[in-house]
Amino acid sequence: MSKIDELLKNEKIEWKKLGNVSVISKGKQFNKRDMLENGIYPVINGGILPSGYINVFNSEENSITVSQGGASAGFVNFIETKFWLGAHAFSVVPSNDTINNYNYDYNCFNRFLFHILKMNQIKLQDSKIGAGIPSVSKDELSNIEVPLTSKETQEKIVKTLDEFTNYVTELQAELQAELQARNKQYEYYRDMLLSEEYLKKLSENSEMLELNYNLKTTTLGDIGKFTRGNGLQKKDFISKGKPVIHYGQIYTKFNFETEKTISFVDDDVFSKLKKAKSNDILIATTSENIEDVGKCVVWLGNEEIGFSGDMYSYSTKENPKYIAYYFQTDKFQKQKEQKVTGTKLIRIHGDDMAKFSITLPPRSIQNKVVEVLDKFQDLLSDTQGLLPEEIEERQKQYEYYREKLLTFDGNMLEREREHISLTHI
Fold it and tell me: Is the whole model's pTM more than 0.90, yes or no?
């Protein structure tokens, strides 16, 4: 009999809903103007990295957070410092009643809940695929089942799982630091390459400069056309058929560009949809936060595709990837912030984006800028793919033992009787 089997053999389990053993709270919106380059406290909305830093906090250290909406919806994190919990994330705090009634140690039970939620992370993330902007409701969190064990067993489980997570965290720290540094480097050079000052210098010195072409400041409406999407719901999807993109997939399934869709509809539904052609830019124009509004993907496939409402296609004779990179710049973000509408659901309209200014060099310079930025994108992708095999193996071990220790499934334990030696239990 394995150490795990011995630990759980005669354990009496009482199952409770997460909402009955913890306090689940949603964060508060912060003013972006309060963001500081040298701020003290991270702003947590979801995902691995903070949204920024400010000098006030509304949450204590060693808190569990769950991303509520957007591309990172369902992501579970454990924040070790004081922080500002943003409007698009939940905190999960052990209830005093549970601590007192079961004589639990607060810190131990807090970590126990973290491991329970981490085990449910994929379930939370997958539950919203194809349903528009991914989001997690408070009810979904509240209904997660939590096994209440004896204090002694809980402490042993937490000790075991924490040892795995600490090791993985240490290995990942260096990789995350490298990724963050490359992201900042990319953002710096992207904004520099697309700045009016740099483009003017590049155009003046370029041997490829077209005759009689001067660098100009124009608007997106002058150089292209926005077309608003329509229809297309999750229930319309079929396994094979005409290719389509739903606006929610821009947040969760696509990166900067794509040649293939992941969803399809029948001929009848397709005939009623607005279409995008090769080299069009598809833009999501509805989100639960300002940062995500305007996220786009360049369609590089050879065939026409249909697209949903809450998004636009943008057609232009300029280099579409140059325009899409411009959508990532601080200049675009500042113009966008002045035109978005809504509070809980943020929107931006094509008529407003058509008035956004853009510095436009000749096509040859656009191509050169895109070539450089594509290389930066490749570097970022390489960094994201640097996860060492050892980290992956440790993560799999953690997930394996987490399942065994937190499901309390006697049948599973019977099937999985192996000679596992966990000397740290």
Answer: no
